[in-house]
Amino acid sequence: MLKEEDIKKLKTGTTTIGLLAKDAVVLGAERKATMGYLVASKNTKKILKIDEHIAMSIAGVVGDAQALDRYVKAELKLFKLHESRRPTVKAASHLLANILYGRRFYPFIVQLIVGGYDKSGPGLFSLSPDGSIIEEKEYFSSGSGSPMAFGVLEDNFKPNMQVEEAKRLVARAINAAVKRDIASGGSGIDITVIDAKGYHELSDEEVQKLLK
Q: Which pTM value belongs to this model?
């Protein structure tokens, strides 16, 4: 079971967002990694590609997130070898949820957002350390900056947003958190789009244009 100190760890550092657009999933995150009051890194990657069409954002303990990244990538490769097909976003998300649930008494201290695109279209799921999983129909944010991000998302989200509009909203929501949450920031903002064409990371120049 999660202890109070474990829950506190989930609230420290990071702002990540997953948002469903009309024909894509948009994931966003800032780059600051903290160790208490120390900025451990200004350029931490918090959106991890786990398959050609699926990615997850991470908030929480870095070592736990990196271990999960290795586990799920290996399992998805085995799935493709055995089934001769790509896993769906839902299947990959439930695989992660099962791994988390199996360790619920000695949990991975992470909160994950899994997003991707498959034959059913875009999909988005949020996962907690106890293995609970929720399919998100609009958007989700995790980390200490999420209250600020949710404020921007609540005010501006519309169903079936075009991808360009969705990218702009995610960039604005992350930027709002960076300006007000002391544990969010770093050298920039990462934004990833996953659609029928696959996985695409925006450059820093593209993100700056979205903010302007």
A: 0.91
